[in-house]
Specification:
The chain has about 270 residues and is an alpha/beta fold. It has two domains: about 70 residues, no CATH class; about 190 residues, 3-Layer(aba) Sandwich (Rossmann fold), CATH 3.40.50. About 45% of the residues lie in helices and about 20% in strands. The strands form two sheets. A seven-stranded mixed sheet has the order 6-2-1-7-8-10-9. A hairpin with a 4-residue loop joins β9 and β10. The termini are far apart.
Length: about 270
């Protein structure tokens, strides 16, 4: 193994500085992914080197807030991967009906599209009023946007089609109000959601839940951090609780695999044994 390059040293020092200054830990994220994101941030924020960006971050929290938009996962859609939600509706909701009350954790909720997808589905199935949804993310700005529940009007056609393919009941438009070129989601949905900052890299389990969903987050972690995150998710679940992962994620080779069974083949839904 060769000596680290100057770029490697700058990257490692920057991630260490972020951890020491802001207690956000990106040191175990996938190296290829974090390298791309830092390079994009460096160029967009106008720094010549990662070292120059590190100096600014240590002295100005506003620069770190801007950097965080590049480091945290931001890409999502309402009812993204519709078959995942169709499986939830058809295979898992009947089990959830047997509980008098429900708690659901959406880990890495980004700007809120996934948690509103769950809330709408649960409302359509008559379960929302007895459910608390915990929506967590490490990015405070993303959480603020998620809590607002406002999305550009041009995204609505894709949302609507995903809702239909996911087995939606009625019209998606009954769950939002069109206002000033945007879709504003119903406050009654938000009333059942608790938004909170949480890092899968550094924080611990904070609630016992019946469903935990962590989709398209683990792919950005290295193997050790993936196992840590899966351990937290497993530890949060009640016995026979359900875990949902992203389309490119799996428990297949995880050290936790033996403690789950696959519920719907190919849809990344698992039940804790």
């Amino acid at each position: 193994m060769g000596a680290p390059t100057l770029d490697d040293i700058e990257l490692q020092l920057l991630l260490e500085a972020i951890f020491l200054r802001y207690h956000q830990d990106f040191r175990s994220y996938s190296l290829a992914s974090i390298r791309r994101r830092l390079a994009a941030a460096r160029d967009s924020l106008g720094f010549a080197t990662l070292s120059a960006m590190q100096d600014a971050i240590l002295r100005d929290a506003r620069v770190f807030a801007a950097l965080l938009q590049f480091l945290s996962v931001q890409v999502s859609d309402l009812f993204r991967d519709p078959s995942f939600y169709r499986a939830l509706r058809q295979e898992i909701v009947p089990v959830l009906r047997t509980y008098p009350s429900l708690k659901i954790w959406i880990a890495g909720c980004s700007r809120g599209e996934e948690v509103y997808s769950f809330a709408i589905l649960l409302r359509e199935e008559g379960l929302l009023d007895r459910t608390i949804l915990y929506a967590t993310d490490l990015n405070p700005e993303a959480l603020r946007e998620a809590e607002a529940g406002v999305y550009p009007r041009e995204r609505v056609p894709a949302f609507t089609e995903n809702h239909r393919l996911a087995g939606g009941k009625g019209s998606l438009s009954s769950h939002y109000t069109a206002r000033y070129g945007a879709a504003v989601f119903d406050r009654a949905l938000r009333k059942q959601i608790v938004f909170s900052d949480h890092s899968l890299a550094t924080d611990s389990v904070f609630a016992e839940v019946h469903v935990a969903s962590c989709r398209n987050v683990l792919i950005y972690f290295d193997r050790a951090l993936q196992e840590r995150a899966l351990g937290l998710l497993k530890g949060s679940l009640v016995r026979r609780g359900f875990l949902g992962l992203g389309a490119k994620e799996s428990l297949h080779s995880s050290e936790h695999a033996a403690e789950f069974r696959e519920v719907v083949r190919g849809e990344r839904w698992y039940q804790r044994c």
